[in-house]
Amino acid sequence: MTVCEAPGKVYLFGEHAVVYGEPAVPAAIERRATVTAEPREDDHVRVEAEDLSLDGFTVEYAGGTGDRPDVDVPTPLVEAAMGYVDAAVEQARDAADAPDAGFDITVESDIPLGAGLGSSAAVVVAGIDAATRALGEPLDRRELADRAYQAEYEVQDGQASRADTFCSTMGGAVRVEGDDCEPIDAPNLPFVVGFDGGAGDTGELVAGVRALREEHGFAADTVESIGDLVRTGEDLLADADPAEPPEPELLAELGELMDFNHGLLTALGVSGRSLDAMVWAARDAGAHGAKLTGAGGGGCIVALDESDATETALSFTQGCEEAFRAELATEGVRVVEP
Ligand SMILES: Nc1ncnc2c1ncn2[C@@H]1O[C@H](COP(=O)(O)OP(=O)(O)OP(=O)(O)O)[C@@H](O)[C@H]1O
Ligand SMILES: C[C@@](O)(CCO)CC(=O)[O-]
Ligand SMILES: [Mg+2]
């Protein structure tokens, strides 16, 4: 039995625009998905994923795509729910050159699903790592990140960047621009997350932005403007001492960029009422800045505040189900049981 766990992430800035080649800076946070992989004698895959919105269920299916899992719920629901785990298993089989490998897989996660904290990437990264290790073919981190990206790319119909999967694999803060992915030195930033209890479908939201961008020049310009503000933010981070707590001026300037980034994401149609309400509650409480994180629609916002004021204000905000401080996960995917 092999167990691996991988972190979720928040976007300091750059989500959505990163899909079109602009840079983005996500940072891994200490909320993790844990995947257990146990090789089987046959070529079946049995998945236990208690957190899925189908209310906790177990499915078993044979290898290869197109197989109908043995479970009493409509096929599209199962496919939507199982897509990422399935894609991770396929990547592991391919990497280990073991097309008929079967597994018992268990997924446990403290990352809310579809909420912008990268639950899909964490499940895919931990899943591929656990399954390849269980087959005796561990991957180096770059290959793991690449295969995790391929898995997200397939499930999201070709609409995914490398940002979430690279960040979850490496941990810390990273910079992603097209195929170019690098860890960056960044000071430990005081992230506060507000979660509205809802979710957005990443594939659908990305498709919406793509359509807007193709239809309107000003929407394409908005995407480019996000890239410009990310480059400004990167310069700020590069000038900071990663070993020291962030200076107040740095927090103020990063916060301003986050506020701007939220405005541009709103213009692209990916915010929502409860996300906006949480962003304003954070700003009113004195946060340096606040924005939605991830694909949007519903889910989470991230704010910068070293005091407790934002977390407290969010916990009293209508529409906010949970508020918490998100610690930077300096370590990416890791082995819990080899
Ligand atoms: N604990 C889990 N068990 C099984 N599958 C999971 C789990 N967590 C996430 N997933 C898979 O990931 C999907 C959610 O991925 P999606 O990309 O829509 O959201 P996200 O990754 O949480 O947010 P974002 O991509 O905006 O950061 C779920 O529908 C499910 O298929
Ligand atoms: C919306 C998006 O930019 C981030 C989702 O966490 C999609 C992606 O990068 O694949
Ligand atoms: Mg995702």
TrEMBL record:
Subcellular compartments: Cytoplasm
GO MF annotations, alphabetized: ATP binding; galactokinase activity; magnesium ion binding; mevalonate kinase activity
Biological or metabolic pathway of the protein: Isoprenoid biosynthesis; isopentenyl diphosphate biosynthesis via mevalonate pathway; isopentenyl diphosphate from (R)-mevalonate: step 1/3
Coiled coil: none
CC cofactor: Mg(2+)
Signal peptide positions on this chain: none
InterPro entries in the cross-refs: Galactokinase, GHMP_kinase_C_dom, GHMP_kinase_C_sf, GHMP_kinase_N_dom, GHMP_knse_ATP-bd_CS, Mev_gal_kin, Mevalonate_kinase_arc, Ribosomal_Su5_D2-typ_SF
Enzyme type, top EC level: transferase
Enzyme Commission code(s) on record: 2.7.1.36
Pfam families referenced in this protein's UniProt entry, alphabetically: GHMP_kinases_C, GHMP_kinases_N
Catalytic activity: (R)-mevalonate + ATP = (R)-5-phosphomevalonate + ADP + H(+)
Domain GHMP kinase C-terminal, residue spans: 251-310
Classification via NCBIfam families: mevalon_kin
UniProt subunit comment: Homodimer.
Function recorded in the entry: Catalyzes the phosphorylation of (R)-mevalonate (MVA) to (R)-mevalonate 5-phosphate (MVAP). Functions in the mevalonate (MVA) pathway leading to isopentenyl diphosphate (IPP), a key precursor for the biosynthesis of isoprenoid compounds such as archaeal membrane lipids.
Family (UniProt): Belongs to the GHMP kinase family. Mevalonate kinase subfamily.
Protein name: Mevalonate kinase
